[in-house]
Fold:
Amino acid sequence: MVTEKDVQHIAELADVGISPGELGTFTHQFNAILEYFDILDRVEGTGQAERDLYNVLREDEIEPSLPQDDVLKNAPFKEDGFIKAPRVM
Amino acid sequence: MAGEIAFSPSDTYNAFLTTCNKAPYGTGKLAGVAVAVKDNISTKDIETTCASKILKGYIPPYDAHVVGLLKSAGAAIAGKTNMDEFGMGTTTENSAFGPTLNPCDTSRVPGGSSGGSAAAVAAGFVRMALGSDTGGSIRCPAAFCGIVGLKPSYGRVSRYGLIAYSNSLEQIGPLGKTVTDVSTLMGVIAGHDRHDSTSQDKPYNHTPKADIKGLKIGIPQEYFGKGVDPQVAAVVKKAIGRLEELGATTVPCSIPSMEYALAAYYVTCTCEASSNLARFDGVRYGPATDTKKSWHDAFQEVRGASFGTEVRRRIMLGTFALSSGYYGRYYAKAQVARENVRADFNRIFKDVDVIAGPTMPTIAFRLKEKSDPLSMYLADILTVPANLAGIPAISVPCGKSEGMPVGLQIMGRMFADERVVDVAYAYEQAVS
Structure:
């Protein structure tokens, strides 16, 4: 069981704003979904299936990237060629 | 450029978020063919929103690999199609820009999340479209709208430029009115791309063949059991009977890991979503305001106002399932369950060539019918196993129930996309 306080905490960790009016509904739905997820407690096995897959690696070579103007094009706030973000402190 | 097509459909179904009224095209296999592209696939200079307010106004500075391939083949990008926000849904009702209606019955949903792509094809606005399939998002709307949709084997189609929701599960794939169109589009988009580290060097050069004599088809009992509408099951069984008449044999089989598949799927996709969607802060693109608020307060404000309810729900579920003390119970267990699904398919495919069953357990829901999230998730039970295992799966129309289309789903061995296409083609040719 998760409580409204738990859901509020998760919302803060995930940086998704939820309004006080939504908290009750989210908590109720979370509990129904997590109760369904409880079935995973009964899963058995080692998690190793036969597979014909392998890692593909390549040299990390520098290639041309998008021009700065293109990269900044979608940013709503810019200053001196930088993207302006909210203050950290 | 070889020319331009004028494209301005009377879009009463809200299938498109953006239409390209003058769509340029080139020369090649798809010269002059109008192709619709799901709005989570990046298109240079054409707005790409994932049907989310957080990306409203976002103009990608580059093309997704598949869009580049479409252009090289001469196709005209006709527009960007509506979807559940970031692909999170089974009805297209989770779009921030209003639901898409099912062209077969406008009181019903087209399925999702690639509902706009399916509706655009079903309505005849375009011959073919691209969608993406994380847990059934191509096959479900194909089934609900009475068209063909293929989820390719994981790795056959590049995901470069697909705005990520759950990268270990999703694939871009084709939708069309006929198996031939789907196969043609698959031939254009498949192949290796060095920008996608999971991309395989397995191009698709195939012309569908209708000969299925001697084919062995596995019929999993779970696909005809609890939760599957008996009328839908009956339509699909009749279609499988038709495949037997064409020379295939059927073998009963069982996928015991199905019991855990849906939970494993939702744990995996919400965990991956919580990570993938962390990038949407409105700062580099999107609706940020010039604020004096601190980092977290500003992000919570913009994400709270710009993400829909289902998106925030999945981000929070994933954040919870990955949090300290719960990781082992949810994420780690889900990965074991996922391997068990893969192992079940490996075992069954030692004996059979393909597996057949319904694509969806019911016909298309009525608008607003599925208001509870868990009951909506349960509708994905027959499509998520293929994503968990990475195997190819196609949905082909196989009749009607209550006047609405029903989809026959054919799943195949890893990288045997050609085989599932052939079986769907054999069925389509036999009934048309």
Notes: DSSP finds three helices and two strands in chain A.
